[in-house]
Design a protein that fits this description.
This protein is α/β, with parallel strands linked by helices. The chain has one domain: Rossmann fold (3-Layer(aba) Sandwich), CATH 3.40.50. About 35% of the residues lie in helices and about 30% in strands. The protein has a 9-stranded mixed β-sheet, sandwiched between helices. Strand 3, helix 3 and strand 4 form a beta-alpha-beta unit. The longest helix has about 30 residues. The radius of gyration is 16 Å and the shape is globular. The termini are close together.
Length: about 230
């Protein structure tokens, strides 16, 4: 398959991480576009077999600071309309919601670090999120959230925010970060240390949870790619 990865930060520290590794390990073709720096690499959505949109430090409504966000939302809307399999992570999930007309905005309670996420009954039956346990210790770093798009189904949530949805049969969004690797988090913890609620606790919890979290991420990405291939 031809799989597009849209990233918003330097790919060594803020790209598709584990998900990009899974694509390449499966033998699929990975196209990566750093849209904040050069959107010219985007092809028409139907030229891809699957599209993945990842996180970033910007917010989904900051068009004034990041004019390319509107173009990205247009691309995402066309991807949804053409039913190209689509998976959004954090900012990516927020941009999908924005693109299809759902509300996005500041979260009532930001989540940074490890937080419990519950997969609901619909999520357990879902072909993608259903590979996750009912309750997971998930890595989060977000100040914005999304409303579930019209016609979509909520698949997971936490005490603070909606955490996952499916729109139709081809589009998924998750608020948490299943793509993170140790290398990525080591960089984030240095660059964003002032945002960590308790840096020592977050690092200890990372040592405790990251191994299992990466296994969940591999299964999640694999399930999405299986649906795209099918």
């Amino acid at each position: 398959m031809r799989v597009l990865s849209i990233v918003h930060e330097p790919t060594s520290t803020g790209g598709g991480g584990l998900f990009e590794e899974v694509v390449e390990q499966r033998g699929d073709r990975l196209d990566r576009v750093s849209i904040a720096h050069d959107a010219s690499g985007l092809d028409h959505p139907e030229r891809y077999d699957a599209v993945m949109v990842f996180g970033g430090a910007m917010h989904p409504d900051q068009d004034g600071e990041h004019p390319w966000l509107a173009d990205e939302a247009d691309f995402i809307r066309e991807t949804v309309e053409r039913e190209v399999p689509l998976f959004g992570v954090c900012l990516g999930a927020q941009l999908i919601a924005r693109a299809v007309g759902a509300q996005v905005g500041p979260a009532a309670i930001p989540e940074v670090g490890w937080h419990v996420v519950d997969v609901n009954e619909a999520g357990r039956a879902d072909p993608v999120l259903g590979v996750l346990p009912d309750r997971i210790d998930a890595f989060q770093w977000h100040y914005y959230g999304f409303d579930v798009p019209a016609g979509a189904e909520l698949l997971a949530d936490s005490d603070a925010a909606r955490q996952g949805y499916r729109l139709g049969e081809r589009t998924w969004g998750v608020q948490f970060h299943p793509e993170v690797t140790r290398h990525m988090l080591d960089h984030w913890f240095v660059e964003g240390e002032a945002e960590l609620p308790d840096p020592a606790v977050v690092r200890r919890e990372t040592d405790k949870f990251l191994g299992a979290w990466n296994e969940h991420g591999r299964r999640l990405c694999g399930a999405f790619l299986d649906v795209a291939a099918g």
